[in-house]
Specification:
Length: 181
């Protein structure tokens, strides 16, 4: 593999590494922006009391192929009920982001577990315009939300500056070639 890489020019290798870095940075930016979107989307939701009806752990969601906790990755499965107006709703959405996964080591899981063991109510964030839509934990402002978009902006600025430098070099080389003729 190393020999194959050595056959590429330095520019080609740098282009490949830049492409890989760009993909990683774009993914970081997207996840950061999704958290911003979730924070904005749930900002006017109201809090109501709810009860946890099921709290279980597994590794492959609600499917049949769940792996026991002792074999590694552990995800939290949580069902809860809450009342809004005259209606009672049941939901299983724990967080507002689309990758709604909570690990067994997370502080949120410990809160859920304590509330279930004590039979206590838990706060549920409910969309007043669509009461069937709810979450147990809203996205709060965090430093990690700035990292992806900021890194993407820096990468874009660096790319633009390198494009300008390459263009200036090319123009200088063309000018030098014309002056020799």
């Amino acid at each position: 593999m190393l020999r194959r890489l050595l056959r590429f020019s330095k520019a080609a290798i740098m282009t490949m590494l830049g492409g890989i870095a760009a993909v990683c940075i774009v993914l970081l930016a997207v996840f950061g922006l999704l958290k911003w979107y979730d924070m904005w989307r749930t900002s006017d939701w109201i809090v109501v009391d709810g009860i946890i009806t099921r709290l279980a752990t597994g590794s492959h969601g609600r499917g049949e192929s769940q792996v026991p906790e002792s074999q590694g990755c552990c995800l939290v499965l949580c069902d809860y009920t809450y009342g809004f107006g005259e209606t009672t709703y049941t939901n299983d959405k724990v967080t507002g982001v689309w990758f709604d996964a909570l690990s067994c080591e997370s502080p949120e899981y410990l809160v859920l577990k304590q509330c279930q063991e004590r039979g206590e109510h838990i706060q549920v964030w409910v969309n007043p315009e669509e009461p069937a839509e709810s979450v147990l934990f809203r996205t709060e402002l965090a430093a990690e939300m700035f990292f992806g978009p900021a890194l993407a902006a820096l990468f874009l600025i660096a790319w633009a500056m390198s494009a300008v430098v390459r263009r200036e070099r090319r123009l200088a080389e063309q000018a030098a070639g014309h002056s020799r003729e």
